[in-house]
Each structure stands twice: as C-alpha cells, then as structure tokens.
C-alpha cells in the first residue's frame, strides 16, 4: 500500500503551513547560504507538527519513507517560492542548486515505547520510524556514493534513469524490458555513466552503535547495529559519542548468486542524529551536588590542606591510620582523567602514580 493523492495533498498542506509558521526565517537563511554541493537541513519538531494535524502523524508512522519524501518536496517548493520573492527582477533563482540539497530532519518524537528505544530494534520494527539511543563504537571512512544512473536502450535509444537499490547495498538492477512508452521490448541497455563522470552522487558513511550498558538490565549483553548516514549527516559523530538517531528501520542483503546463502541484515537509515555528550555530562552533575562541593571548599578556603585531609579520612574509614598510603591511593584514583586529542576523540587517561610499600621485618 502507498499514500493516495488526497492524503499526499493533506500532508503537503499541513507541512507547508508548519514551515511558514515556524521555519520561515530558517529557510530564507538557507537560501542565502546554499551552495552547489553543500547540503542543508531544517530540523522539524515532530510533536509540534503532529499537534497541528494528528492524521499526518498516523501517515508518518505507517509510511515513513513516503512522508519524508513529501516533506523534502514541500521544503524545496517553499524554498523556491521564497527565493523567487527575494531575488531581484530578471535574476533566475537557485533552482538547480537547491533541488537535492535541502532536507527535513525529524526530532522530538513522543516518548513512548512504539517510537523511542534505548535498546536495538528487532525484525518486527522494520519499516517504522524510530528514535534509538546508543553509543558509537565504530565509524567507517566517508565514501562517495552514486545513487542514480542513466541508461540507454540499445534498440530504440530511449534514455531513462535508474536509482540504486538500498535493500541490495545500493546496487543497480536494470529493468527486464525497456521502459519506453512506445512499447519497445528490448532488454539490452548501455550505462551512460561509464562514458562520463557520475552526475548523481552523495556522501555516504556507515557507523555502528551499541546499547548503553547503564540502560540494560543486569546480566544483559549489549547488542549493536549498523546505521547509514548520508549527505549532511556524514561525520556528525565519532567513536565514543552517545547519540540519539532518528531513522527508519530497514533490511538489506547482498545480490543473489547461485550457491550463496542470503543473509539479511537489519540497519537503521538515519534521518537525523543528535550527539548527547554535553547533555549527559550536565545531567550527571546535579545542582545540589555542585553546591555541596562548592560549600565544602568554601569552608576550607583558608586551609585547603585541611580539606584534603578531611577527604582522606573518608577514604576507606575501616582502615585506621596509613595516611601516606591513603594519600597515594587517592592520587591514583584522581589521576587518569580522560583527554581529548586533536581529532576530537576522547582518550582514556592512564594513572601515572606508583605506590611503594616498605615491608619491615619485626
């Protein structure tokens, strides 16, 4: 099943009204900054959009691929209209430069088990738009992906365009017969992209995310899943980042060959990605704990060594004395702070303090 024409018109009308009300200035700014090869995004709050019309939310849950495509078309339409109004008379708007560079990115899904997950989705979630939280454990190199290719019929010289099949790792499968409306039945085609450079390409990257251990039950082994990033989402995160990814659950498999086993893989095709590193650090440092920390050192501001000794008294209070040993252990525990290298990756620190114990004979 697919979306009917009247449903598509309703979705387009609601989304157009939402863009004009909430993102009019953002689109104008994108028009001014849009270059030929740079992709730009408009972040759409799902809660605000669905409150305007709940039917759009139902269609979005049932047909996420189709609705996202409609969103991009409407966004391009609004951008063209605003560009025509803003451009001086006689100057042509940036039509070709914006056709494939504007994207609607979804965020703010309702917090419910059907849409928001802290664990890796399963087979029953294929075809649904989800918000998945996890930790990036691996990132691949950025690649250039050809997603569209022109073919020409060897008999009637009809030229047609084919899109790469996402389900089969973006491979191209020519049609069985010529799609010429005149009725050509030839099955021989030549690829025009082999003569010249590919015209339809996009940035492509794969990352692997893993479930966060602190969100799992005791004894559970964290699972992992591949995530597909395209266009402006590429290089938006790195290994070690805690991320929330909004996207559609999909299946993919290698092309079929005789004697080979078909293995189906679950992947998440990302529509938006949010890095939660700063938010996680802020949430862990609660205001009352920070205030208690400041009050403690305020009381010992004239004698910080006494404050340090007070902390040492709380270190392993069951063991009496051993002041120097406790001080050395505290230094080791306080050392090894993580650092951030030049690439922005977090590096686990090493404790460089050594504990020397002298054993005397009695």
Automatic annotation (TrEMBL):
Reaction catalyzed: ATP + H2O = ADP + phosphate + H(+)
EC number: 3.6.4.12
Biological process annotations from GO: double-strand break repair via homologous recombination
Gene Ontology molecular function: ATP binding; hydrolase activity; single-stranded DNA binding; single-stranded DNA helicase activity
Domain MCM9 N-terminal: 6-110
Keyword tags: ATP-binding, Helicase, Hydrolase, Nucleotide-binding, Nucleus
Subcellular location: Nucleus
Pfam families for the chain: MCM9_N, MCM_OB
Segments forming domain MCM OB: 124-250
Matching InterPro entries: MCM, MCM9_N, MCM_OB, NA-bd_OB-fold, P-loop_NTPase
CC annotations in GO: MCM complex; nucleus
Family to which this protein belongs: Belongs to the MCM family.
Record's protein name: DNA helicase
Organism: Echeneis naucrates (Live sharksucker)
């Amino acid at each position: 099943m697919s979306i009917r024409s009247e449903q598509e018109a309703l979705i387009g009308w609601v989304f157009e009204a939402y863009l004009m009300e909430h993102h009019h200035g953002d689109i104008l700014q994108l028009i001014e900054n849009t270059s030929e090869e740079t992709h730009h995004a408009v972040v759409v709050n799902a809660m605000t959009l669905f409150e305007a019309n709940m039917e759009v939310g139902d269609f979005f849950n049932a047909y996420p691929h189709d609705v996202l495509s409609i969103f991009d078309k409407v966004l391009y339409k609004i951008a063209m209209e605003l560009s025509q109004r803003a451009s001086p008379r006689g100057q042509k708007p940036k039509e070709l430069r914006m056709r494939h560079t504007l994207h609607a990115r979804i965020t703010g899904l309702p917090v419910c088990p059907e849409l928001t997950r802290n664990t890796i989705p399963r087979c029953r979630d294929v075809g649904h738009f989800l918000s998945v939280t996890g930790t990036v454990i691996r990132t691949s190199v950025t690649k250039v992906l050809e997603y569209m290719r022109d073919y020409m019929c060897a008999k009637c010289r009809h030229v047609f365009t084919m899109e790469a099949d996402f389900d089969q790792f973006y491979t191209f499968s020519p049609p069985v017969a010529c799609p010429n409306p005149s009725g050509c039945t030839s099955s021989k085609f030549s690829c025009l992209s082999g003569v010249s450079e590919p015209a339809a390409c996009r940035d492509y990257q794969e990352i692997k995310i893993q479930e966060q251990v602190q969100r799992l039950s005791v004894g559970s082994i964290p699972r992992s899943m591949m995530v597909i990033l395209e266009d402006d989402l590429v290089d938006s995160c790195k290994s070690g980042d805690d991320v929330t990814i909004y996207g559609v659950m999909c299946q993919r498999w290698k092309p079929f060959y005789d004697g080979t086993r078909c293995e189906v893989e679950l992947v998440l095709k990302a529509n938006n990605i949010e890095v939660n590193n700063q938010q996680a650090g802020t949430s862990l440092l609660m205001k009352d704990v920070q205030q208690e920390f400041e009050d403690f050192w305020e009381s010992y501001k004239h004698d910080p060594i006494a404050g340090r000794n007070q902390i040492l008294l709380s270190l392993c209070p069951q063991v009496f004395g051993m002041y120097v040993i406790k001080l050395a252990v505290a230094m080791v525990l306080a050392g090894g702070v993580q650092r951030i290298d030049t690439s922005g990756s977090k590096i686990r620190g090493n404790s460089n303090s050594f504990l020397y114990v002298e054993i005397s004979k009695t």
